[in-house]
Write a structure and sequence with these properties.
This protein is 45% helix and 19% strand. A hairpin with a 5-residue loop joins strand 1 and strand 2.
Length: 422
């Protein structure tokens, strides 16, 4: 059961009481992320997230960490394209402490000049680190192909130039502009009582002004031909990321898309894992991924390939994508995919942290919650033809984008000739 309360200033509270658990997970969500930035301040959401852990009005950096970890809890935060979240998981009796610390971080960050300067160096090193990791950097190259010259196609952490431009006042202004009540969701799951918790949240946040909902520029997707980006690097294997424009977060075929992902590359019994790794031994790592946003999405295939087998592997991957478009999946394979989907979700929702993330992301993104019972009903209504229709809609030659990092043993022309999906 999910309980939801909206304060007069627009802040939303959503909880899932789990009375048999000993823990509680708490998250403060902000409707802001990489999509709300420009090329001039790219990375500022991520930068601000880092800075909130450096101290607040009531707690120093050290006190924030010791207060949570000193009672057996864990503390974290993340920034995505559309969301920022600060979260804790701790013994349920310390819920008041968790709320006090997280709320003070969000409402009263110190943003001290010396810490801003120091953390800038840390983030610039983080940017360098990911560029040195081809298995990570290849996704940045793919995003640039999928959404060129727009925030969604730029790295969440920003680049060296954009982060270098960000000053203390920029972080302060960004916090005041985007961290408003109507753009905040407080979610919690575990041993708690909703009404009591809501009153505590209201006491802390009631003074915060509502303002308008944060907005980002709508995505622009115009693609008439397959696109390719080769990045030369002396690596032991070639890293591949293949991407197609997909469906938005709440698309009617969202479950059929998830089932397509499971069938093709979500686990060790998937088609791509079986064909590329088990049968052919062409890759150690091979799989698929689905990205979901408010107005768009993407379907990705990723692999680490023997440098001498790139063309062969790419040809086989595209062959599998063609196959699932042309041939209806078997009832047995479809049943296994559904069971995996619902089984993984059921197992995840036994954990207070995963459940908090589940309801928090849903309310922040869509202003709604889905119960496990509702999801089971929707998934069971999906048909094999739905999965085939999704594949036919997404896997088109004109919708194909490919990023490769590795020794350039193949010319762009040779790779481009392989990019054919009928």
């Amino acid at each position: 059961m999910y309980n939801k309360t909206r304060l007069t200033n627009g802040l939303s509270i959503v909880t899932h009481p789990m009375p048999d658990m000993q823990s509680v997970a708490l998250g403060i969500w902000l409707k802001v992320g990489g999509r709300y930035e420009s090329s001039q301040n790219k990375g500022i959401s991520h930068y601000l997230e880092h800075m909130l852990f450096k101290g607040s009005k009531k707690y120093s950096c050290r006190q924030i960490k010791e207060s949570i970890e000193g009672v057996g809890g864990s503390l974290n935060g993340f920034t995505s394209e559309e969301l920022t979240c600060y979260l804790v998981k701790m013994p349920a009796r310390y819920l008041d402490l968790a709320l006090d610390i997280l709320s003070d971080m969000v409402l009263n960050p110190k943003l001290e000049e010396k810490e801003v300067i120091k953390e800038k160096t840390v983030i610039l090193e983080e940017i360098k680190m990911y560029k040195d990791l081809p298995q990570s950097y290849v996704y940045e190259l793919l995003d640039e192909l999928l959404w060129p010259n727009q925030p969604l196609g730029m790295a969440i952490s920003g680049d060296y130039d954009s982060v270098s431009r960000i000053k203390q006042q920029d972080l302060y202004d960004f916090n005041k502009r985007y961290y408003s009540a109507s753009n905040i969701v407080v979610s919690a799951a575990g041993r708690l009582e909703h009404n009591k918790f809501s009153k505590q949240v209201e006491k802390v946040f009631s003074h915060l002004k509502g303002k308008n909902k944060n907005k980002f520029l709508a995505v622009a997707e115009k693609q008439n031909n397959p696109k390719l980006k080769l990045y030369a690097k002396d690596t032991e294997q070639t890293h591949l990321a293949l991407g197609f424009h997909g469906f938005k977060r709440d698309h009617p075929f969202k479950h059929a898309l998830a089932l397509l992902h499971i069938i093709l590359g979500a686990n060790m019994s998937s088609r791509l894992f079986n064909e590329i790794r088990e049968k052919r031994g062409l890759a150690y790592e091979i799989g698929t991924q689905v990205k979901r946003f408010q107005d768009t999405g993407a379907f990705l295939v990723h692999a680490g390939i023997d440098n001498k087998k790139v063309v062969d592997t790419l040809r086989l991957i595209l062959k599998e994508l063609e196959s699932i478009k042309k041939q209806l999946i078997s009832p047995d394979e479809f049943k296994r995919a559904k069971e995996f989907y619902l089984g993984q979700l059921t197992l995840a929702l036994e954990d207070t942290l995963e459940h908090m993330l589940w309801i928090g992301e849903s309310v922040t993104s869509l202003d709604k919650t889905y119960t496990l019972k509702e999801i089971i009903k929707e998934v069971n209504q999906a048909k094999r033809l739905d999965v085939q229709e999704v594949a036919r809609s997404i896997f088109k030659e004109t919708n194909l984008n490919l990023a490769l990092i590795g020794p350039q043993k193949y010319t762009e022309k040779i790779i481009y000739q392989q990019l054919r999906i009928n």
